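User: Show me a protein chain along with its predicted structure.
Assistant: Here is one chain, sequence first, then C-alpha cells.
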Amino acid sequence: ILSGLSSELRQKLAAVRPETLGQAGRVEGMTPAALTLILARLRMDERRAS
C-alpha cells in the first residue's frame, strides 16, 4: 500500500478501507506523519491520472 507506514498501520488501513483522509485520520494509531505520507501519495496518484 504505502512504504514508510508501519505494518500494523497498513493492516488497520486495509481492514478499515477509509474513503476519505478524515476517516484515515481517525484510525487508531494514525500519526500526523502517516497522514502526510498518505496525502502525498494521493496527490502523486492524482497528478499521474491527469
